Amino acid sequence: MEVINIAVIGAGVVGLAVAAQMSKECEGVYVFEKNDKIGQETSSHNSGVIHSGIHYPPGTLKAKSCVEGNTMLYGICKKCGIPYKKLGKLTVALEEEEEIKELEHLIRQGKANGVPDLEFLDRDQVKKLEPNVQVEKALYSPSSGILEPDELMNYFHAEARRNDALLATKTEVIKIKKTKDYYELKGTSVGENFTVTARTVINCSGLHSDRTAAMAGLDIDKLGYRLHLCKGDYYRLGGQPPVKMLVYPLPKGGGLGIHLTPDMAGSVRLGPNAYYVDTIDYAVTADEKEFIEDVARFMPLIRQRRIRPDSSGIRPKLQGPRDSFRDFIIKHESDNDLPGLINLIGIESPGLTAAPAIARLVAEIYRNEIV
């Protein structure tokens, strides 16, 4: 039976970043991806926003990895020629006192997280930046931007390949068994059964990461690892773009509210909304009136524009519909009698921004706790 050093399960943006980082430091890194291509689920169904880090409580993994990852991503883009736009972002509040208080909370939180150059803007200052946006106050975060997720995944994949990591697509792990010193992985690869033995397993399987943890023998309900699928639809705005930068309302429900996101081609998407689902389905089902009325609160001219269904994505949230904030789980499971297993569970937004920082953290866990 073949023995490998490190098995990374999942080739989304985080799995690829982990493979690139681990293969820089270790030999024998293999990546198993059940789909035909890399990044076919959460990673390729998002808006490609480079987040600044204002939305996450200080000291959490989401906050730390987002702020660190923001700087790292811009560095990678500049060094390697990955297209990006550092657009800046407005998070807006209307006249309601509660909304302005929430905006003040976000600026305090962002500063505590180390987000640079945050500014509190009044109505006239917002008008100068975005004439079509009509609000009382806004939080301006200049370090927010956009990139093309596929380009970033291709970069991490190329880095992993350069370091002799091997990617196996159409390869699904369906059983994980702990033996004395190793993990026995069984599954199917291009329609054939396979078995491989790995010294270390890194679970980066996104929407399926709770099930992967359960395969290894963990009680995901007792540990709080069970995921909730949260879907978001996008609409695309026709005609001349009405904004130049990212424009967000205050966070709402399971997401960050229906916002305006210019893309790399220059057109603008609206979304996503957020609603919990039981199955993975990428059909756009949201009512366009919901999108128009939500955006019209801060940009009334949207009512005069045409929008059309664009795409959707699904987030692997640890936070259920009635739950408060849940952080990323990035954990070596030695205290659960599974030394050599590192779980990454609930890696939703800001996972794309945080990917290189998460990869660096996983490598640190491996060096300090496994080797």
Summarize the helices and strands and which ones pair or pack.
Blueprint: E1 3-9, H1 13-25, E2 29-32, E3 49-50, H2 61-80, E4 84-85, E5 89-93, H3 97-113, E6 119-122, H4 123-129, E7 137-141, E8 145-147, H5 149-162, E9 166-168, E10 171-178, E11 183-189, E12 192-203, H6 209-215, H7 220-223, E13 228-237, E14 246-248, E15 259-262, E16 268-271, E17 275-277, H8 288-296, E18 307-317, E19 329-332, E20 341-345, H9 351-370
Parallel strand pairs: 1-2, 1-12, 2-9, 5-14, 12-20
Antiparallel strand pairs: 3-8, 4-8, 5-7, 6-7, 10-11, 11-12, 13-16, 13-17, 13-18, 15-16, 19-20
Helix pairs in contact: 1-5, 1-9, 2-9
Give your account of this protein's structure:
This protein has 371 residues and is α+β, with helices and mostly antiparallel strands. The chain is 30% helix and 29% strand. The protein folds into 2 domains: 3-45 and 150-226 and 324-370, FAD/NAD(P)-binding domain; 49-147 and 228-317, D-Amino Acid Oxidase, Chain A, domain 2, CATH 3.30.9.10. The strands form 4 sheets. Strands 1, 2, 9, 10, 11, 12, 19 and 20 form an 8-stranded mixed β-sheet that branches. Strands 13, 15, 16, 17 and 18 form a 5-stranded antiparallel β-sheet that branches. 47% of the residues are buried.
